[in-house]
UniProtKB/TrEMBL annotation:
GO terms for biological process: DNA replication; double-strand break repair via homologous recombination; resolution of meiotic recombination intermediates. Essential component of the RMI complex, a complex that plays an important role in the processing of homologous recombination intermediates to limit DNA crossover formation in cells. Promotes TOP3A binding to double Holliday junctions (DHJ) and hence stimulates TOP3A-mediated dissolution. Required for BLM phosphorylation during mitosis. Within the BLM complex, required for BLM and TOP3A stability. Residues 215-234, 292-341 are annotated as: Disordered. It is found in: Nucleus. GO terms for cellular component: nuclear body; RecQ family helicase-topoisomerase III complex. It holds the Pfam family RMI1_N_N. It comes from Lates japonicus. InterPro entries: RMI1_N (IPR049363), RMI1_N_C_sf (IPR042470), RMI1_N_N_sf (IPR044881), RMI1_OB (IPR013894). Keywords: DNA replication, Nucleus. Residues 325-341 have a biased composition (Acidic residues). It comes from the Eukaryota. Its main location: nucleus. This is RecQ-mediated genome instability protein 1. The keyword Nucleus applies.
Length: 341
């Protein structure tokens, strides 16, 4: 009886949906469905058929390993297909739009300036062709993997199609070097998804792989392991702020001493070098304090007090009497006028 139920389900899938599955997988699926329902007689044949179809929509066709497409199609130079084939979508990408702009939009960080180009919708003439969507799909029957291109707009397809969804290819199709050219009459979406593919081939990951960028999940994992670093950086910033406060206080003291020193040197003249030396020693002690604070905050001594030091040095040299002033204290005398006695 169980074999008859399985064969009836297999015939229904083939005739109604053109779905071909291994008999062993379908037999195990029917047995599991009956066990979950509580017994062999709990489910009708129609319920078993529908639930078996639902299980197939959620199954990765690679696990079934049951060929559907003609053998060698992926490497043939040109092949014309005719018939109905059920395949699975592994991933898809809109190749009519820049991948970088799609990634920024997916992250929510798009900028209006990125959309500006030499040719926009507003500058196009009425007779010029409008840009249309073109999806590139990675499809497989579980054994062979192909690419399928939307060379004509297909309303049944959507850029939000879930990875692992099942498609029904029908009608006349052309395959060139592993690329299927599809039009609106060649596609019927059956639905479904594969949980593993949804996580591995989401839009962000596909765009990152296309651009050669690290995938989003890896960036998030790296970010999760990095929180201790910002805390350490904040601590260093706090220490630097404390050192800057000490440095500013020291600079204020130095400027005050500098002003007192400059005034005293200019008023006293060349006979007050002793007073100048004492004041210069006090300013040197202040500069040593500033140098210590600057070394802790990572600043050089010359970058902070270069102008002040130059002013002190120039005032010090002004205080030393020049040769002309010495000559004025000892004026030249005319020795010829002195008596020879």
């Amino acid at each position: 009886m169980a074999q008859g139920v399985v064969r009836a389900t297999q015939a229904w899938l083939q005739s109604s949906w053109h779905v071909q599955v291994p008999f062993a997988w379908l037999e195990a699926c029917v047995a599991w469905l009956q066990e979950e329902a509580g017994g062999a007689g709990r489910l009708s044949q129609q319920q078993i058929n529908q639930q078996a179809l639902d299980q197939w929509l959620l199954t990765d066709l690679r696990d079934l390993d049951y060929p559907v497409l003609p053998e060698g199609l992926a490497v043939a130079q040109k092949t014309e297909l005719s018939g109905t084939f059920c395949v699975q979508v592994d991933s898809l990408l809109d190749i009519s739009q820049p991948a970088y702009g799609q990634l920024q939009k997916w992250k929510g960080t798009e900028c209006a300036n990125d959309e500006v180009s030499a040719v926009t919708q507003t500058t196009q003439r009425p007779w010029e062709a409008r840009p249309t969507r073109m999806l590139l799909l990675q499809v497989t029957d579980g054994v062979q993997s192909l690419e399928a291109m939307e060379y004509q707009p297909i309303p049944a397809l959507s850029a939000s199609l879930r990875p692992g969804a099942k498609l029904q290819l029908q009608g006349q199709m052309v395959c060139r070097l592993g690329m299927l050219l599809l039009g609106p009459s060649n596609i019927k979406v059956l639905g479904g998804e594969v949980e593993d593919l949804v996580d591995r081939n989401n839009q962000g990951r596909v765009l990152c792989r296309t651009l050669g960028l690290p995938e989003e999940q890896q960036q998030q994992q790296e970010g999760e392991g990095a929180p201790p670093a910002p805390q350490q950086g904040n601590q260093e910033v706090e220490d630097l702020e404390l050192d800057d406060a000490e440095l500013l206080a020291s600079l204020e003291a130095q400027e005050e001493v500098g002003r007192v020193q400059v005034g005293s040197v200019r008023d006293s003249g060349y006979r007050t070098l002793s007073e100048t030396s004492s004041q210069f020693s006090r300013s040197s002690s202040v500069r040593s304090l500033v140098s210590a604070a600057s070394s802790r905050s990572g600043l050089t001594q010359n970058s902070r007090r270069g102008p002040v030091q130059e002013q002190e040095d120039s005032d010090l040299f002004d205080a030393i009497p020049s040769e002309h002033e010495i000559e004025e204290d000892f004026p030249d005398e005319d020795f010829d006028d002195l008596p020879l006695d």
